[in-house]
Amino acid sequence: MGNLFAHIKSYFSPFPRIKSLDGLQGLEKVDALFHNLVAEKKVPGLAVTFLDKGETVLQKGYGFSNLDKKIFVDPKQTVFRIASISKCITGLALGKMVEDRIINLDESIYTYVPYYPKKRFGFTLRQLASHTAGIRGYRGKEYALNQDFSIKDGINMFKNDPLVFKPGTGYLYNSFDFVLLSLAMQEASGVPFERYVEEHILKPLGLHGTFSPNYGAGLKKMENHAHFYTKRSMCFKQSVEVNNQYKLAGGGYLSTSEDVARLGRAILKRELLSDATYDQLLTSELINGKPTYYGLGFQVSQDAKDRYFVGHIGSSVGAYTNLFIYPEQEKVISILINCTDPKVQPVLDEAIDCFLKDNV
Predict the structure, then answer these.
(1) What CA–CA distance (Å, rounded) separates 306 from 286?
(2) Residue 97: pLDDT above 90?
């Protein structure tokens, strides 16, 4: 009962007042839209960074990283779960391994993970990275496991299940694809996946605020880490404890809004990798001649106003995230929220539209 009263108290505690949107345009309206997400108690907190041609035009924290202590979000310092934006990091690492001839995208998974149980059909690393391998998705509460699994342990959840479809004939978005993909990358390189990514992607790109959950032993001691919440009708409740280390590649990384924007800028500028490699990563796979709107670790799609973008939307326990990269407009948008899917994507889309129309 005490916890319930604490949550109710936090819900009605000093949130900002709602701002009128009348007459607002461009970044002023963007700012008010984000402000109102907190004021209307739709999210506990969020951090945003907007880049225009590489320059920061909006960087701000809204609301709270910790409701009980009333710690405000800092877009440069507050560390959030970034959910499936992690797949973009893995995509870059995959591209790097291809360029260094450590792996071949069109090689069978059994070349790198020979102990993976044989299926009716074989499949490739490219098919894993594009969600066309036929691996199943989560069942029940598998998305919220709190087990200290290694990547190799993680495949035990699905390795004995049949493929959902013949590889290359369908598309099924899921994070288990990336558990198996990261295991193949680890086996091929002889280096733990986490360490390879840190040395070849995070450090070279200057992503010093981006971590794996393993780093998180110190996270609880950090004042600038976001607490993770789930929205209830009357309050924001602390999310259940989860351990995402085993699915680091598909949804486990933690980062700041500033770092995620820096990642987006590196992708926009095609840093670290060749144009040919980026072309592979950022080209939608085709199934029966129709696009899946997914490349290799990247959504390759259209936004709510049909504008082409690459990047990722992420959703996990205690987190909802957007990384939108617009190559034609040279814009990057990083939005991190410390709440399990709060159903606010239409508001985020409206803010993105205001920004893009204001900067055409």
Answers:
(1) 19
(2) yes
Average pLDDT, integer, range 28-44? 97
Q: How far is CA 8 from CA 103, 188, 232, in A?
A: 52, 51, 10
Comparing C-alpha atoms, which of 318, 317, 321, 313 is closest to residue 338?
Answer: 318
For residue range 42-52, list pLDDT tens digits in order.
Answer: 999 999 999 99
Residue corresponding to tokens 């934006």: 85
The first and second tokens of residue 87, run together, are 């797949």
Class in CATH terms, 27-358: alpha beta
pLDDT of residue 278: 98
Tokens coding 117: 């149980």
Count of Cβ atoms closer than 10 Å to residue 360 Cβ: 5
CA atoms of 173 and 136, how far apart (whole Å): 9
Element (H, E) at 177: helix 176-189
Tokens 């309206």 identify what position? 29
Other CB atoms within a 10 A radius of the CB of residue 153 amount to 14
Tell me the pTM.
0.94
* pLDDT of the residue at 4: 52
Antiparallel, parallel or unpaired: β 299-302 and 254-255: unpaired
Q: Which residue has the higher pLDDT, 214 or 96?
A: 96
3 state SS of 117 = coil
CB 251, CB 323: distance < 8 Å:
no
Is-contact 133 163, C-beta < 8 A? Answer: yes
Q: 183: closest CA among 159, 160, 219?
A: 159
Q: Please return the burial class of 3, using the count of CB atoms within 10 Å of its CB with bins 0-12, 13-18 and 19+.
A: exposed
**pLDDT given at position 360:** 47
Q: Give per-residue pLDDT as tens, 131-176.
A: 999 999 999 999 999 999 999 999 999 999 999 999 999 999 999 9
Q: Does residue 292 contact residue 284 with C-beta atoms inside 8 Å?
A: yes
CA distance linking residue 54 with residue 326, whole number of Å: 12
Instruction: Give the HSE-up count for residue 90: Cα atoms under 13 Å, Cβ half-sphere.
Output: 38
CA 212 – CA 252 distance, rounded (Å): 7
In this predicted structure, the answer to whether residue 252 has a pLDDT above a threshold of 80 is yes
CB 87 within 8 A of CB 311: no
